[in-house]
Amino acid sequence: MSLSGVSATALSLATDVRSGTIKATEVIDAHLAAIAALDGELNAFVHVLDGAAREAAVAVDRRVEAGEDPGPLAGVPVAVKDNLCLRGAPTTCGSRILEGWSPPYSATVLERLVDAGAILVGKTNMDEFAMGSSTETSVYGPTRNPHDLSRVPGGSSGGSAAAVAAGLAPLALGSDTGGSIRQPAAFCGVVGVKPTYGTVSRFGLVAFASSLDQIGPFARNVADAALLFDVIAGHDPLDSTSLDRPLVQVGPCLADGVAGMRVGVLAELVDGVDADVAARVHEAAEALAAAGAIVEELSVPEVRYGLPAYYLIAPAEASSNLSRYDGVRYGLRVEASDVAAMNSATRAAGFGPEVKRRIMLGTYALSAGYYEAYYGQAMKVRTVIVDAFAAAYRGVDVLLGATTPTTAFPIGAKTGDPLSMYLSDVCTIPTNLAGHAAMSVPFGTGAGGLPVGVQVLAPALGELQMFRVASVLEAAAPPTPAPSPPPQGSGGGVR
Fold first, then answer.
1. What does the domain layout of the chain look like in residue ranges?
2. Fold of the domain spanning 10-255+430-476
3. Taking Cα atoms as reference points, which of 215, 65, 149 lies closest to residue 411?
4. Which of 171, 194, 306, 448 could form a disulfide with 429 if both were Cys (CB 3.0 to 4.6 A apart)?
5. Which residues are catalytic?
6. Is the pTM of this model over 0.85?
């Protein structure tokens, strides 16, 4: 059995459904069959919405038969990370503390998907409360990389990335706080987009670090990612951080090319990464130069401060956001002799080790006597990084670098060494601190034939030029092999 499901693109599926060439029910049945056949090995989904998906497909077909247009994503299956609220469906964030909880409302992005004719097929696995880089901290167990079942898919949105890579859904949504869309996209050989902070509504996203979190697309190609981004982007009055300004649709501009565009190869996102990853970045730069871009190397030394600043700011915000899980309002409740004991027992039983680690770190950074020395200093460093990026973008339109320092690592290789795990996000974190746009584009393979992602970074609201660059890179990229079972004895394999 190949670990590859349905290969049709989202654009082609939507076109065929809207024209009546195929039925949405046929599309959904094919994808649900692929999930049933393959997900036992991958563990990409934690909840499959079989019944609701089929009902939604029937409704789409009825609209087509009535001569209506269901929307740009008509009949397209979309997988959803399990930290996005969906009314009436389990939403657990991969944590025991939210077991049995179903939200009474849906995230704005999910309502926009449904309005565009998309069909939600399931909630995907993730690191608990999005805290991780490998999708190994989930209460549901690890997700596996479709290219090699013995390796991680990346995190924290590993379930979404694996589902798209394996053909279980042509599109998926994830969240990116420090690289949680781009890093798994690179590991799984798919496109992953972290939009500018504020361009996509966070209403209904269960918060990890509110000043860093952003929702974005996964897809198997740049055009599909652009289609999904154009559907979910835009102002939302329910999100106080949402940008209230018109946004340019990126889909129609993908063929505009990069002639005359200025591209900076960012030294700090190439130096120090594995040689095979660095080689792909340089090949990507050469491809852009051949397409007419003006390519130069540049340095932004301040991005090296991103990792320590992030691991003070993000845990501090998490410490505040996760205080609401007290055994009273949501999910798990462990009975005890009094309220304080119940709170403590519930949190001890409900949160996993990584979440507890970050809550303690954040609480310490915010505590009296240490606030200014740690959190306050980290916020000053964040400002330094924002200013450094602004200076860089005065000379170039986009930046280019590695998405990850390595290709996908083996399951269990870094779970005992938190610092090593945190370093997996060293190339992606600076963009989150700045609030800018970035995306990972598959660009060939590295050691062991595993996918490599090249990262395109753009200034705030620079999605248009970012997607144009990504489209050129995609056309020039060496082929990435389709997912398949690993050889016998590699630690994976199909049962």
1. 10-255+430-476, 307-369
2. Amidase signature (AS) enzymes (3.90.1300)
3. 149
4. 306
5. 81, 156, 180
6. yes
